[in-house]
């Protein structure tokens, strides 16, 4: 193809890349999106792995997408997106003999009443927790999903809570998930609702700040639910492509390298031989190791950044098992029948043991898992009377071989059979997605890691993806990291892409040149060796 120029090139048509492209196109920029795969969406895609049964290949439930100020601002419903929700939001089966698993209902009063049956005080505590959430919802979401540091959001939160409560809320958000759950609730049932959500990240339940993910997802469950795109995850990707319609999307165009001229990103080359010259910005919706280690010239990246990337920590590898079932799941606890998402395989103490296995390189005998009842959430996913479902769990960090994945997949089925006797007999077919399969489908999912890097404190905020400013600007002028490797990290919320686009736009004009100079000076300060400065 004849070389062309563009105001901006977006590398990768994952959801963050599409969000960035939409924002830049809205500002009147000429945008080219280069996607390595045959279709857009990245980790937001679905397919019929088993004929007649729609499976979400990676992400599936989207509370972050439904609540994120970024995603809601795009008005995706006008681009074909429709949400479906399950009769109850999610539940947690604590043991294989649990016949009264706690669930979160769509109405807060129903959830509180159900929790009060385990301990009267927990019903009141749930009301109080959600009441506080409704007051701080906007500044909290702005703080989570806006660029770092969240100065305005933090100030708004402080005004809402007052000085004394702000101090205590800061402590609360820094708590380990296990401590947070025990401080909030008296019954194990209520505690597990928070702890199961905390496991959506990869931070141990006794690690500082691990409770923040549990708190956020628990409150969003009661607030917006755990919606799914009607018809499959690809419908969300389709809506994002439509929303970014002014941008030129080129699929089957894997990027080979980024040219850097006089310290600035100047062109992007594909492996197929195409070249796009860049007038203003490159947004990279790729992992940080791929950007700095593969796409950029080695001499364009300071030595200290290369050294920092040797310490980059991926999140734990994923094993996902997709099921086509000939009937609804026969749960021991009937409360789980209407839940789109089910957490199972471990109670409070069991989660500690499971996490210890992952930390010490042991394949868990009884894996804790997230389980999705997709037809329960969206009737279009499979024929009437059947269920399209999946189970999602982790391997120990650094264990990515197919044999280990298959062993854990077998153990997943055993745990499901214990919680739902007759489950195995309902399986029409199953498809296992091992770490090698996930990475083959999407190069950003290195080793089966789906979060763009660990969500633990040592690689969040100013440490994401490496020690620096915690922002999307990079050491190369005009190049911005807009993937889940950038703040605020994993999840389908679009914030990393939007933050990158806004940073690129913010460097234009007279004030933009000042911002760019200040940012460049700060980046040089924190990334270059003392003898280089």
Give a verbal description of the structure:
This protein has 533 residues and is of the alpha/beta class. The chain contains 19 helices and 18 strands. The strands form 4 sheets. Strands 1, 2, 9, 10, 11, 12 and 18 form a 7-stranded mixed sheet that branches. It has a 7-stranded mixed sheet with strand order 7-6-14-15-16-13-17, with helices on both faces. Strands 3-4 form a two-stranded antiparallel ribbon. Strand 10 and strand 11 form a beta hairpin. Helix 5 runs antiparallel to helix 6. The chain is globular, with a radius of gyration of 23 Å. The two termini are 42 Å apart. The mean pLDDT is 96.
Which regions have little confidence, pLDDT < 50, spanning 5+ residues? none
Distance between the termini: 42 Å
> How many strands in all?
18
Q: Quaternary state, please?
A: single chain
Mean pLDDT: 96
Instruction: Give a quick account of the main beta sheet: strands, pairing sense, barrel closure.
Output: 7 strands, mixed
Residue share in helices? 25-40%
Class based on secondary structure composition and strand pairing: alpha/beta
Number of helices: 19
């Amino acid at each position: 193809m004849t070389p062309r120029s563009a105001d901006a090139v977006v590398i990768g048509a994952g959801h963050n890349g599409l969000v960035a492209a939409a924002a830049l196109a809205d500002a009147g920029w000429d945008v080219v999106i280069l996607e390595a795969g045959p279709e857009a969406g990245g980790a937001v895609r679905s397919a019929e792995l088993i004929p007649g049964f729609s499976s979400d290949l990676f992400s599936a439930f989207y509370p972050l997408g439904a609540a994120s100020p970024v995603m809601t601002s795009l008005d995706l419903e006008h681009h074909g997106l429709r949400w479906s929700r399950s009769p109850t939001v999610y539940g947690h089966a604590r043991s294989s003999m649990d016949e009264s698993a706690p669930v979160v209902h769509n109405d807060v009063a129903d959830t509180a009443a159900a929790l009060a049956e385990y301990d009267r005080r927990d019903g009141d505590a749930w009301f109080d927790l959600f009441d506080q959430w409704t007051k701080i919802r906007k500044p909290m979401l702005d703080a989570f999903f806006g660029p770092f540091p969240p100065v305005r959001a933090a100030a708004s939160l402080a005004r809402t809570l007052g000085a004394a409560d702000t101090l205590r809320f800061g402590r609360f958000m820094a708590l380990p998930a296990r401590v947070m759950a025990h401080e909030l609730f008296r019954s194990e049932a209520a505690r597990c609702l928070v702890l199961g959500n905390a496991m959506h990240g990869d931070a141990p339940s006794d690690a500082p700040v691990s409770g923040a993910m549990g708190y956020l997802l628990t409150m969003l469950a009661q607030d917006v639910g755990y919606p799914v795109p009607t018809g499959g995850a690809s419908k969300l990707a389709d809506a994002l492509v439509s929303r970014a319609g002014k941008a030129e999307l080129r699929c089957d165009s894997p990027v080979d390298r980024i040219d850097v001229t006089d310290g600035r990103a100047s062109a992007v080359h594909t492996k197929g031989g195409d070249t796009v010259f860049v007038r203003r910005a490159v947004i990279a919706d790729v992992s940080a190791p791929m950007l700095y280690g593969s796409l950029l010239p080695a001499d364009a990246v300071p030595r200290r950044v290369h050294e920092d990337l040797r310490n980059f920590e991926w999140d734990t590898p994923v094993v996902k098992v997709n099921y086509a079932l000939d009937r609804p799941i026969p749960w021991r606890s009937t409360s789980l029948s209407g839940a789109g998402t089910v957490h199972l395989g471990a109670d409070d103490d069991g989660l500690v043991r499971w996490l210890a296995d992952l930390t010490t390189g042991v394949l868990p005998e009884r894996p804790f898992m997230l389980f999705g009842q997709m037809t329960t959430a969206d009737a279009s996913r499979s024929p009437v009377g059947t269920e399209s479902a999946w189970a999602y769990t982790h391997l120990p960090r650094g264990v990515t071989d197919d044999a280990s994945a298959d062993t854990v997949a077998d153990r997943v089925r055993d745990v499901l059979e214990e919680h739902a006797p007759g489950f195995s007999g309902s399986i029409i077919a199953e498809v296992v997605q091992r770490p090698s399969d996930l990475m083959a489908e999407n190069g950003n999912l290195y080793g089966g890691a789906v979060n763009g890097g660990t969500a633990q404190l040592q690689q969040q905020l100013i440490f994401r993806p490496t020690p620096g400013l915690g922002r999307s600007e990079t050491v190369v002028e005009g190049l911005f990291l807009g993937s889940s490797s950038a703040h605020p990290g994993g999840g389908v919320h679009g914030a990393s892409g939007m933050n990158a686009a806004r940073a690129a736009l913010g460097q234009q004009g007279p004030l933009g040149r000042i911002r760019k100079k200040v940012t460049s000076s700060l980046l040089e300060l924190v990334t270059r060796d003392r003898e280089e400065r």
